[in-house]
Design a protein that fits this description.
With about 800 residues, this protein is α+β, with helices and mostly antiparallel strands. Helices cover about 70% and strands about 5% of the residues. Its main location: membrane.
């Protein structure tokens, strides 16, 4: 014992172990007031509470999966937020208990090392209980935090689903913009919306004040000034060097105009988008910036890029400063009239799109969301309706002044009409009360117009680039020509081929963008994934054709049909004629490509509608029954047509004879083949007959024609002299080939005379008739000159008997 008291450290440790429970209780009572001590001492059944919270979370998830109405989703969102709040309160109640257990463990200290003074059983049990309690409390707090996070994520998902449901339910009548309920968010806002906007405004204020703290002040000021300079003067500063460098760096041709248009649009996107990026970076570069501020910056940058793209496309296509480099055929007065509309439209998109993004971010009520959607649709529709009216007025003024406006193509006229009609429908939908429909049409109009404008510029740029690259008059073309020993035909063929590949890729990208794109909300990867997922589905039992999918399907069908027609014309008129293929082979390739293309377009259109075609069992069954009873001939002819196009026993341009019909093949269709006779009439022959019957192909394998003439002469002629005369006539004709040489055959000897047959070969069976006609004229002339007559033909004389007297 004396030894123990002589060691102060051991004595203090012993006292701490003995009086630890009393010290912990006293310390907790002193640190907290009487009320707090009572709260901590109050027992909490955390396990049962956590179990109840988890059941509530699972119940909300089940209801969300079945909910389709925006109103029901709003109630579920409130339940999810309440659940997150309850989980947070439970976590806050468990924190003091965890701190109390940790304080007791700190008083006890760590377990003694091996070889040290052993602890009493009471202390060992107390440390074990405290560790168990601490572990349980840690797990419960983590579980409460997980429930809170899950509830918050669920609330975010419910908000997104609610907005998506509002977007897809375009047939929902939400009230006219002339009604009081539409303007209620301005005059009588809801308390939840006010609180949400107040919290959001406070976060913006905090970010603003933090950006001007001493450690961030100079950087913020520099970036704001730089963003202002780039946004206001960047485009003008880069436009002049571009106009100076383009004619000096690029060869003479259309490439200058298309590249200048592309560069103009790119400059607008880079300058205005870069300015927006710098502006948002002022407030989002701090490490502890809130999520709302960060997401607001992302929304602002995306909308700025889209708005800048619209401004750039307007500058590129209208080209008011450089009218001679304007790509489309637009008169100067019309271009000057339209120059303000891209800027005004981009401003509407930026401001109203930002408002809608903030509404979605803070989770405002449906009334506020509808108000933002209605206002954006109204302003865009007014702009889209005024522009065609002003264009028509300017064109009429030009005609009245004796000026000739630009020649408008059919496609331009259709686009002009489509914009006017869609703008009218949007205004009508807003007045009637279909705000979701108006919003859907507005965003589709903006997105489709932007994609088509980009496609127009990029197609012109790609075609002009490859034509300039492979042109025999440019430096690159001359280099390729001499280095690869190519002639002008090969260069022209390469330019056509690469231009077609570029246009095809651009059209595919445009279709992907049209099918999956939305205003500033879809990345290229997400759009690509959407198009890949078009092949998915649940079959007919799960088909849900929503309006957006229907519009996408119509767009896909129209674009696919246009691409096929364009590709068919390109193959038939531009590419294949430059190759060494014969006309029949070219026609077969074009027909086969067209048939396969139509099948793919139909299948992809069904997939776009949400119909998974490879699971349409009822269609397969119906086709099986139809084939068994009445469609077997059609299917047989279809398969025979494919065989004709692939094996090519006959092809377009061949001279064939089948079942007494002889003529030229003009077209091989899916079901039948068109044969043109010598009198220009057409016979339709089913494809199966060309496969199953004997067909004489007079032109297959470069077959030669044989011109044979048989003549009858009297018995007293000199056969050798006549033979020489006939051979001279054949050899003198230009259509008769030298190899094999013409020949005369002694065919027949009879009492009425001798028959001589003269034969010569021509290049094609098609010229036999005309050649024989020319030879008969020539032979008869020579025979008369030589005094040789043909054998006399027998004549029959009808005599009338004399009348009886």
């Amino acid at each position: 014992m004396q030894k123990l008291f002589r060691t102060p450290g051991k004595f203090v440790l012993l006292l701490a172990l003995v009086f630890a429970p009393l010290l912990a209780v006293a310390d907790g009572a002193n640190a907290a007031g009487p009320d707090e001590a009572a709260t901590v001492a109050k027992p909490i059944d955390a396990g049962a509470t956590l179990s109840a919270l988890q059941k509530r979370l699972d119940n909300i998830k089940q209801q969300v999966s079945a909910a389709k109405d925006a109103k029901n989703m709003g109630g579920l969102n409130d339940d999810a937020l309440k659940l997150a709040s309850d989980a947070d309160h439970l976590s806050a109640d468990l924190q003091p208990l965890l701190a109390q257990a940790q304080a007791k463990l700190d008083v006890l200290g760590p377990a003694p090392a091996p070889g040290a003074l052993p602890e009493t059983p009471q202390v060992i049990k107390q440390r074990k209980d405290l560790n168990t309690s601490k572990t349980t409390l840690d797990n419960q707090i983590q579980q409460a935090a997980a429930i809170k996070t899950s509830a918050g994520n669920l609330s975010t998902q419910i908000s997104a689903l609610r907005r998506d449901a509002l977007k897809t339910q375009i047939a929902l009548n939400t009230g006219s913009i002339l009604g009081i309920s539409f303007w209620s968010p301005l005059f009588s806002p809801q308390e939840d919306d006010g609180q949400s906007f107040a919290d959001y405004k406070q976060q913006l204020k905090d970010a603003w004040h933090q950006a001007w703290q001493p450690q961030w002040r100079y950087g913020s000021g520099f970036m704001l000034l730089l963003a202002l300079v780039i946004g206001v003067f960047g485009g003008r500063l880069l436009d002049a060097p571009l106009a100076w460098l383009t004619p000096r760096w690029l060869p003479v041709g259309r490439l200058r105009r298309s590249f200048f248009a592309f560069a103009t649009a790119a400059i607008s996107v880079l300058t205005l988008g870069g300015s927006a990026e710098l502006f948002t970076w002022v407030f989002t570069r701090m490490p502890d910036v809130s999520d709302w501020v960060q997401q607001t910056g992302d929304i602002l940058v995306k909308l700025s890029l889209f708005s800048a793209l619209i401004v750039g496309l307007g500058r590129a296509l209208l080209s008011v400063r450089h009218p001679s480099w304007r790509l489309p055929a637009i008169a100067d007065p019309v271009a000057n009239t339209l120059v303000s509309f891209p800027k005004m439209l981009s401003g509407f998109i930026l401001i109203l799109g930002l408002i809608e993004g903030i509404n979605n971010l803070v989770g405002t009520s449906v009334a506020v969301t509808l108000f933002g959607n209605g206002m954006s649709s109204l302003l865009v529709a007014i702009s889209a309706s005024i522009a065609p009216i002003r264009v028509n007025r300017v064109r009429r003024q030009m005609l009245a002044n004796g000026e000739q406006p630009e020649a408008r193509s059919t496609l331009a006229g259709l686009l002009h009409l489509a914009v006017s009609v869609i703008a009218f429908v949007i205004l009508l939908a807003l007045l009637v009360g279909y705000i979701p429909l108006a919003r859907f049409l507005t965003y589709e109009l903006l997105w489709v117009g932007t994609v088509l404008a980009c496609l127009y510029i990029m197609i012109d740029l790609s075609v002009d680039f490859f034509e300039s690259l492979f042109s025999a008059n440019t430096a690159s073309g001359k280099l390729l020509k001499h280095s690869l020993s190519l002639d002008d035909r090969h260069l022209s063929l390469a330019a056509t081929l690469f231009s077609a590949i570029a246009k095809t890729l651009l059209l595919i990208i445009a279709v992907i963008s049209l099918l999956g794109g939305n205003l500033g909300t879809t990345t290229p990867l997400e759009v690509f994934n959407k198009v890949v997922d078009l092949w998915g589905g649940k079959g007919m039992e799960g088909v849900k054709i929503i309006p957006a999918q229907a519009v996408n399907a119509v767009i896909f069908l129209v674009v696919g049909w246009y691409i096929l027609r364009s590709a068919k014309r390109w193959l038939d008129n531009d590419f294949l004629p430059k190759t060494k293929m014969d006309r029949g082979m070219r026609a077969s390739l074009v027909t086969l490509f067209t048939n396969v293309g139509y099948v793919l377009v139909i299948l992809l259109t069904l997939s776009t509608l949400g119909i998974e075609w490879n699971r349409l069992a009822w269609i397969v069954s119906a086709l099986s029954v139809g084939i068994g009873f009445g469609l077997q001939e059609i299917v047989k002819n279809f398969i025979s047509g494919l065989i004709l196009l692939t094996e090519r026993p006959v092809k377009v341009g061949d001279l064939i004879s089948i079942a007494g019909v002889e003529g030229d093949i003009r077209r091989i269709n899916v079901r039948a083949t068109e044969i043109q006779l010598s009198d220009r009439s057409t016979v339709i022959v089913p494809n199966s007959q060309l496969i199953s019957q004997n067909v004489r192909n007079a032109t297959m394998g470069n077959a030669q024609g044989v011109a044979t003439i048989a003549l009858t002469f009297p018995l007293d002629i000199d056969p050798q002299a006549v033979r020489t005369l006939l051979l001279e006539a054949y050899e003198a004709h230009e259509a008769i080939q030298d190899t094999p040489a013409p020949s005369v055959t002694f065919s027949q000897l009879g009492p009425d005379g001798i028959v001589l047959s003269v034969t010569g070969f021509v290049s094609s069976p098609r010229v036999i008739g005309s050649t024989k006609s020319d030879l008969l004229y020539e032979i008869l002339t020579k025979l008369r000159e030589a005094g040789i007559s043909l054998g006399r033909t027998q004549t029959m004389v009808w005599a009338t008997p004399p009348a009886e007297s």
